[in-house]
Amino acid sequence: MSGKAWLALLCLLAGVALASYGLAYGALLLALAGLALVMTFVYFAYAWVAGASRPMGAQARITPAADAAWSMKDQPLDNPRQDTQS
Question: What number of CA atoms fall less than 13 Å from residue 18's CA on the CB side?
Fold first, then answer.
């Protein structure tokens, strides 16, 4: 696991413990600190999910095709369809 994963796990564990203790015993500052740590975990989890949707090596730009379809619109078809209705 990476450093961010360990930090996210630590934020979750400490946040739940602080929030539950603060909410159970009326310590508002501890409850708020715990909820902030839980929200930090949610941020790290969302960043991981958003990063997981990108393909590997997505930092490089995508090069356009040499013969793009829009540049070939004026060229005749090789095999025109003969099955059109008359």
Answer: 18
